[in-house]
């Protein structure tokens, strides 16, 4: 006789799933003992491996977790209700939120935080009372919010739910961190206790269902420094406002310290117009697993509803908070581009005290030069010593093979060079532009964005003798520019699109065979502005974008995304004694990171990477 006690059951109450009842639905009273025995074994394996659950069988229901039931002896927390109508991020919106404060909470110690979209769901206050009392989760304040609505004459003229929850930008998490949660901490309990919430991401969980689920994930994805635990129920990772991009972005982006529980059902199809909810959740789970995240899931047979999530919620909380206060860790991704370029144990670290940095380049010694927003030019030597050199009336800067620094003057004043002693020399008076790159033979390429339809997207070639000619036009909003390691191609980024163009450089410096080549990612507020570009000795391109450093292979595909907590990357270059350190500007600050690969500055001798072929 087979007994369920022989198995290690994955969830509380699983031994009550009633396999005997399931068996009766799959067999007939005249079925042979062998058939009944075989089906019993198969169902036991399927049930206990979460492939089939008892709740998926008509007429059966979930076992009731003791945390879902009231217990008179357990201290009950308090639920407070408030309105919030003063958002600067979502102007004109009104919404309600509730705050759960456990009985065990003491204001002298900051409590952990649980945030849930769409108000109170999953019987959370009752579950929290039980789990906190049993020590199965920490003392946690719950904040349950609704999406906003713009009202006129007591009627909604605009429902904000999809706009707030389905969008992939930082607006909602900024709303939480800068507006809603500060308002929560202004409140007091009925007995006068102040509300004190931990600011540590490891002490914070966020959850939601459907659009609320993708909102919860986006909040943690955008701000892993603010949330590290996520419960996603029937998540809307579909083509509604770009959520279908998440599996691809997860695979390409360095893993973040987030623990994630996914739940969905086989028959989840809220609106097939936008995609398949169940398949999209399978894709998310596969991407998170591939990228080394601590992720688990429970798939049922249900639809777009909260039945399964409600039933398993206590175990979800037990899993999300397991081991606390141990920190949720970054995982190790299977991304082969990350493995090829990232050195183990190396992370981003700040370089120096230069503030409001705007431009960065390097010289032949591997020293870096930085221009700040006040037009001062600084040098940072190989020992990290920073020296203020000279104030320049210019924009973009670029190093050259002679150790000098070139810059483009403001208001069309020309192209200039600065020697190591700060002396300024005019190279050409006939050019203007935004970005430039100096080739190894001394030619300089300058991009000029469209000032009008007539002169849209000029690319200038300035020869060593100062002669300036236009070698292409028509790239709308031409921005950053760089040269391939073998010196055969010039790459020019086009703002407000996904594209970086490729040109083949001719012997006289002219350009031929223009083609859209690199395709970059962008989502919502990550519009495609390429602030800077660099190349490594494997032929990979590094693009400084609002999303981070997007690393592309030789055939134009983004293979890795390196992000910094500060957000947009506005400048980058390889430098250091061996050019094996990537320097970036993020939020006006300078950071560095040692890589496995070496940079190839545009003015250096040609390097010929091994071709990856056509694949």
What does this entry look like structurally?
The protein is an alpha+beta fold. The chain is 17% helix and 31% strand. The chain has ten helices and 34 strands. The strands form seven sheets. Strands 1, 2, 3, 4, 5, 6, 7, 8, 9 and 10 form a ten-stranded mixed β-sheet that branches. Strands 11-34-33-32 form a four-stranded antiparallel β-sheet, with no helix packed on it. A hairpin with a 5-residue loop joins strand 30 and strand 31. Helix 3 packs parallel to helix 9 and helix 7 runs parallel beside helix 8. The radius of gyration is 29 Å and the shape is elongated. The two termini are 56 Å apart.
What is the count of β-strands? 34
Distinct helical segment count: 10
Radius of gyration: 29 Å
Mean pLDDT level: 89
Structural class: alpha+beta
Helix percent reads 10-25%
For the biggest sheet, the summary is: 10 strands, mixed
- The global form is elongated
Task: Give the arrangement of secondary structure elements.
Layout: H1 19-26, H2 33-48, E1 78-84, E2 93-101, E3 112-117, H3 124-134, E4 140-145, E5 149-152, E6 155-159, H4 161-165, H5 171-184, E7 204-209, H6 211-222, E8 229-233, H7 246-252, E9 259-265, H8 277-290, E10 294-300, H9 307-320, H10 336-341, E11 349-350, E12 357-362, E13 368-372, E14 376-380, E15 386-391, E16 394-399, E17 405-409, E18 415-418, E19 424-428, E20 435-438, E21 444-448, E22 458-462, E23 468-472, E24 478-483, E25 489-494, E26 499-505, E27 511-519, E28 532-535, E29 541-545, E30 548-552, E31 558-562, E32 569-575, E33 581-586, E34 589-594
Parallel strand pairs: 3-4, 3-7, 7-8, 8-9, 9-10
Antiparallel strand pairs: 1-2, 2-4, 2-5, 5-6, 11-34, 12-13, 13-14, 14-15, 16-17, 17-18, 18-19, 20-21, 21-22, 22-23, 24-25, 25-26, 26-27, 28-29, 29-30, 30-31, 32-33, 33-34
Helix pairs in contact: 1-2, 3-9, 7-8
